[in-house]
Amino acid sequence: MAEVEEQGSKLSEEFTDESEEEDSEEEPKLKYERLSNGVTEILQNDAASCMTVHDKFLALGTHFGKVFLLDIQGNVTQKFEISSVKINQISLDESGEHVGICSEDGKVQVFGLYTREGFHENFDCPIKVVALHPQFTRSNYKQFVTGGNKLLLYERNWLNRWKTSVLHEGEGSITNIQWRANLIAWANNVGVKIYDIGTKQRITNVLRDNVSLRPDMYPCSLCWKDNATLIVGWGTSIKICVVKERNPTEMRDLPSRYVEIVSAFETEFFISGLAPLADQLVTLYFVKENSDHMDEEFRSRPRLDIIQPLPESCEEISSDALTVRNFQDNECRDYRLEHSEGESLFYIISPKDIVVAKERDQDDHIDWLLEKKKYEEALMAAEISFKNIKRHDVQKIGMEYINHLVEKGDYDSAARKCQKVLGKNMELWENEVYRFKTIGQLKAISQYLPRGDLRLRPAIYEMILHEFLKTDYEGFATLIREWPGELYNNMAIVQAVTDHLERDPTNRTLLTTLAELYTYDQRYDRALEIYLRLRHKDVYQLIHKHNLFASIEDKIVLLMDFDKEKAVDMLLDNEDKISTDRVVEELADRPELLHVYLHKLFKRDHHKGQKYHERQIGLYAEYDRPNLLPFLRDSTHCPLEKALEVCQQRNFVEETVFLLSRMGNCRRALQMIMEELADVDKAIEFAKEQDDAELWEDLISYSIDKPPFITGLLNNIGTHVDPILLIHRIKEGMEIPNLRDSLVKILQDYNLQILLREGCKKILVADSLSLLQKMHRTQMRGVRVDEENICESCHATILPSDMAKPFGVVVFHCRHMFHRECLPSSGAIPGVQFCNICSAKRRGPGSGILEMKK
Q1: What whole-number distance in Å separates Cα of residue 35 and Cα of residue 349?
Q2: Residue 183: inside a domain, yes or no?
């Protein structure tokens, strides 16, 4: 619950909101200010009794019978001396051009503020209320009502005279009247009535709930929300009534309209005034002193609540206790609530004070967030509504947020917000950098500094780099990598790094950073030296990016020592910049590196390094024997004699066997396999590859006295050599391991071969038959003979020009055609003739003849 307090002895006595509990996190819905200027002077010597609000001005009535017209700020624009006693009610029409006034001594005046026309009447009883027709300015709506002991309707007739009608009487004094469109609502001691001026019918009677309350002490509050919704507050109860049209079939003698109460509920305190706020209600409460749950400090203070009506209850949205002047002396009837529909302004009227409540705008919302130190939310709200806020600036709020974060010690968050808040204001950026330097937090702001098109002075960046260089080499290196080299004086930073390296010459971080600085400064040779010294992974990227191949011709060994694979790939990819001869020359003293280079070169292209193939034989033999045999197989430029010599010197049997076979000495190769390797399987494989009967004979002769070799031959020879030849040569009585299994395998292999042959024969016969049938069908088809065909012998048209004469045509199945007289005599077989062309080519399927005779 927010509280309104007086601000000391200030003349304006500014109205402010404070929370009953200082730590409350609930934001108020309304803000308050005291209506001052002329009002202050009026209420010092008089007391307010009533007030009416128009969109353009205010009309204030006092206990001493005066009526003041005020502007919205409370300045007096007009003054009327109406009576010597209390003004009970002031009524304005919608245009604000006519006013109706009634007073406690029975005076009623209705007149135009800008015309001379008027109505003046003195009654013999107090007139509590007066209400003008909302369209009183128009000639056909010159009507108003007064309320004392009776409800009187005054109408001006065509003779310009006022006609009086009694609308209601006999239920005590009338205390409130509200006129909206054609509906007049009034309250007396019994309840609330609504009268339809159009149909001249009273359409409802809403009874008072708590009859024990004195109507003069706890008057009824009436308020029209719209042309059909009336809000009634009386005592502690609120009712919302909706005027509806009655179904014509139900009318009979009933009014054409009826009232439905859509919401009725009890409140905690006594109601002094009501006003609508969208779909909510603003209620002015009078709090009695005997409320046990109220603290002594807040007793008797009026409350202004915003509530959400429900069918049988309400929900409190906000509640403010108002400290108005002399609130201790006031009763429920001393307070009134008036509102301006156009601007959602609410006026709380008490005898010695008038307070204006208005909805809080976005500026007020931001004020509250700043007061609660919710800077991030305030900044977000300002950014979203930057076009609507008037008293705040987004950047100023952001600066307050940054100051708050710095005070909290959250330097990283403060630095991060600088990027968003300071934007393109370079002056503010520099101020913040110096502030962070003062508090020793340059590191925090360094990663957020501008580094794009908008930049600070180079001295700012250099100051931060020097700070990092003193305390954090890794952080310094990170900034050098992330910041463009144009932000600072590169030479100055290089000198600073060099000075530090004099004290710590082996520091890898500083050396790497210095290489990067040399790169920014386009001193690539210096950078390359450092990278090679450090064996840094970026050395290859540096060479490629800046085309430094000319600079590395004498550093190939260093590159190979660092990473052989990457170095060789780079050299092979750029053969046009560093020739193979140059690389071989540089690696001459490092044969192990030379081998790696030449091996990859050979893998890429077997012919490019052909002049080094002889040299590679020794390199493979020395450093990479597993790849020697593949090299010998793939190379067509390798001198076989040299290779054989090397392999025999080193006793490389497999390589020697391959070379001997390649040189045509297969018998010697087979002998080495059997004698040196003693590997029957390899010997059999070798014999299969060569497919030479003499080799098989040598193999059998060598193996005939070696039972394990005989077993191997029996298991593998069956498909290449007749196993009977081997079996006949085995000495009788020789013990051969697994002989039975080997013989079984031979028989199985033989059966398999027989089955395969039979299967192949069946397939062959089936295919031959199928093709023969297809050929027969093809040959049995008719052949078209027309003028376009020619004789293959005389090359004349096959058909004569005169078809009436007899002629003969021979057509072979091969589709060649001849005149009968152009064909030679029959061949060796009587009655059978062959196509001359196909017979000559030995491909004719056409032994048959189709003859055409006529």
Answers
A1: 10
A2: no
